[in-house]
Amino acid sequence: MTYLRSLLFTLYFAGVSAAMTIGLSPLLFVGPRSGIVWAMRSWASLVIGGLKHIAGIRMELRGAEHVPPGGALIAAKHLSMWETMAFHLLLADPAMVMKSELRKVPLYGRYAERAEMIIVDRDAGAKALRQLITEAKARLAEGRQIVIFPEGTRVAPGAPPDYKPGVAALYGHLGVPCIPVALNSGLYWPRRGLTRKPGTILIEFLTPIPPGLPRPAFMAALEGAIESATARLLESSKAACG
């Protein structure tokens, strides 16, 4: 049954993504950026709704009180494609830090550009960090929340952490609290393969880290918070599954 539901969801996901990406493409050329934001939120809503009704995967949000209404830095664990969509629903207008390779995805890359996401070439070294900081400051000034995955890519649940310097650079230059985010999405939407396992994805916004910490102290606090909370969510989910 899980295989059949996974297959049906994969077909649904592909169909919805293609229909919306192509059908709403006029927004890429006319109209305000708010139309693009609406399109991306609508796509995310349909996909996550499909997960619930087709694949049996629900979402439980914890710690929403830790997210300020205005600009902030949000640093999240990255176990699945799921969270790249969920943040469009959990936050009003997130500015997500994305790798430049996604710009090459037909039409999706253009949507990301028009939504004014922060697209960074990770191979550009110091230049990429300067671009990251400059664009993040601009988005923050607009009252948007900056979302970054500190490890830079999806990792398997339980894999050793490998935090990159980008999040520390943002924290040091933006002067705002950093909200760590833990989740267990990789148990149900793995980073590889088409199987979608029924269950509840937990996503938890943790206690904000105040601005102004020295870089080593910040990185230790961030990694400690995310990794310990993620391990807790993974353990509780595995125990619930028996």
Describe this structure in words.
With 242 residues, the chain is an alpha/beta fold. It has one domain. Helix content is 46%, strand content 15%. It contains 7 helices and 7 strands, in the order H-H-E-E-H-E-H-E-H-E-H-E-E-H. Strands 1-7-6-2-5-3-4 form a 7-stranded mixed β-sheet. Strand 3, helix 4 and strand 4 form a beta-alpha-beta unit. Helix 2 packs across helix 3 and helix 5 packs across helix 6. The chain is globular and about 50 Å long. The model has no long low-confidence stretch (mean pLDDT 93).
Short description:
The chain is α/β, with parallel strands linked by helices. The protein has seven helices and seven strands; from the N terminus they run ααββαβαβαβαββα.
Low-pLDDT regions:
none
The helix content is: 40-55%
Oligomer: single chain
Shape descriptor = globular
Largest sheet strand order: 1-7-6-2-5-3-4
Characterize the biggest β-sheet: 7 strands, mixed
Total of domains = 1
Q: Average pLDDT, to the nearest integer?
A: 93
Q: Return Rg in Å.
A: 18 Å
The amount of beta strand, in percent, is 5-15%
**Strand elements, count:** 7
Distance between the termini: 19 Å
Query: Which class best fits the helix and strand makeup?
Result: alpha/beta
What is the count of DSSP helices, taking H or I runs of 4+ residues?
7
Query: Which series of helices and strands comes N to C?
Result: HHEEHEHEHEHEEH
